[in-house]
């Protein structure tokens, strides 16, 4: 049989453990429900449940159009301008990156025009000559790139609606939109979680004292 003294000591220890666990449970619960609230801002990306009422979709992806527009309003014009972005484009680098694609396009256009206007001459030309013609056209295209890029920089706002392009891209790619918000607010969300844990601890102490 268990010694009555041991039974009383066990009961007292268990009672103290219950009191001591109140702050720990409070910290875990407060931190968890704040973490869950933050996660519910992002996920799920698409609606899960029975529309329109029974289910959930992350706040950011659900309001993707508004979130994307506001983020672009903040970034474009305030943090960085379109002109600053375009000024970073160098014609040589631009051409080098587009080289393979541009070469294929030039070759296709050359062949199409040659077959249309002088098909017999084109068919009689040896392949090395055709290759040389393609290379010459590509070389001429490279020389034209600098004035084209200059015109693009000078008239970028008339040629492209960069803001709308960015908004459309973010709306189309909701995971990217979510990731962008997560990266931008990473420090703030971490701070909120830390504050939640501290608040949970102090609330647990208060509950323990009032118990």
Automatic annotation (TrEMBL):
Transmembrane as UniProt keyword: yes
Keyword Membrane tagged: yes
Transmembrane segments annotated in the record for this chain: 189-210
Keyword set, alphabetical order: Membrane, Transmembrane, Transmembrane helix
PANTHER family: UPF0754 MEMBRANE PROTEIN YHEB
Name this protein carries in UniProt: Uncharacterized protein
Organism of derivation: Polarella glacialis (Dinoflagellate)
């Amino acid at each position: 049989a268990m010694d009555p003294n041991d039974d009383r000591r066990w009961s007292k220890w268990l009672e103290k453990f219950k009191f001591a666990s109140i702050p720990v449970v409070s910290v875990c619960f407060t931190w968890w429900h704040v973490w869950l609230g933050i996660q519910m801002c992002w996920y799920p990306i698409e609606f899960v449940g029975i529309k329109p009422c029974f289910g959930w979709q992350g706040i950011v992806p659900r309001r993707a159009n508004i979130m994307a527009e506001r983020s672009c309003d903040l970034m474009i014009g305030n943090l960085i301008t379109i002109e600053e972005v375009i000024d970073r484009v160098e014609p040589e680098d631009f051409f080098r990156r587009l080289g393979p694609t541009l070469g294929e396009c030039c070759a296709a256009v050359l062949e199409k025009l040659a077959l249309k206007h002088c098909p017999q001459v084109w068919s009689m030309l040896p392949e090395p000559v055709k290759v040389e013609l393609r290379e010459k056209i590509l070389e001429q295209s490279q020389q034209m790139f600098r004035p084209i890029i200059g015109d693009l920089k000078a008239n970028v706002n008339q040629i492209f609606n960069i803001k709308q392009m960015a908004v459309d891209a973010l709306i189309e790619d909701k995971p990217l939109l979510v990731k962008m918000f997560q990266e931008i607010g990473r420090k703030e969300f971490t701070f909120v979680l830390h504050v939640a844990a501290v608040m949970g601890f102090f609330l647990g102490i208060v509950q323990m004292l009032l118990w």
